[in-house]
Write a structure and sequence with these properties.
The protein has 190 residues and is an all-alpha fold. It is 73% helix and 0% strand. The chain has helices at 3-38, 51-68, 83-125, 135-150, 154-167, 178-188.
Length: 190
């Protein structure tokens, strides 16, 4: 097989791998979005401003905002569609999808911590109104929530994705670094 045919075939395979990678990342993103949407507690008016409920409301609002955010598409970069332009376009999509997945994973982990807080609170109260007899246990639940929220770090999220994606055998050649993801988020969140 002539060298040019090998190069062309390799490029087509890489572009196919990039397109598949976008699908894999967006599938994770969609799954996380669905899980966050499932968390819709109904606090009483007295509980509405309790910290865990506030975290859950923030999570749902942030997830909806990421879902509604448009892709920063510059059609001039892909008009005409040379192979190199298509490659760069797919790489941009991978970065954007990775950044969205990263953001939603962080939101999801915060929501999980808040749901744990809610379940703990319900177990403590057992259907009663909060009173002084519950104060120490409720404070411990709040402290646990704070600790779990503090443990949600950018490095942890990236490492979790890398490990899961590697174990799944995904093609990761164009996956962005943590720095690239965070820069992308900063540049498009303004």
């Amino acid at each position: 097989m002539p060298y040019q045919q090998v190069v062309t075939k390799t490029k087509l395979m890489a572009d196919g791998s990039r397109a598949l990678r976008v699908v894999e990342i967006m599938r994770d993103f969609q799954s996380l979005q669905h899980r966050i949407a499932e968390y819709s507690p109904n606090p009483s008016p007295e509980e509405y401003f309790e910290e865990g409920y506030q975290v859950l409301r923030q999570c749902r609002a942030q997830a909806a905002a990421i879902l509604a955010a448009p892709f920063p598409l510059d059609l001039s970069q892909i008009a005409g569609g040379s192979g190199e332009q298509e490659k760069r376009h797919l790489q941009r999509i991978i970065i954007d999808a990775s950044a969205r997945r990263f953001q939603v994973k962080k939101i999801y982990l915060r929501a999980v911590a808040a749901v744990k807080w809610l379940n703990t609170r319900n177990a403590i109260l057992q259907g009663e109104q909060a009173n002084q007899g519950h104060a120490a246990q409720l404070q411990q639940a709040n402290n646990t929530l704070h600790n779990e929220l503090a443990a949600i770090t950018d490095a942890r999220i990236i490492d979790d994705f890398r490990n899961a994606d590697t174990q799944a055998g995904y093609w990761l050649q164009d996956d962005p670094s943590r720095t690239t993801i965070l820069e992308w988020i900063r540049s498009y969140s303004d």
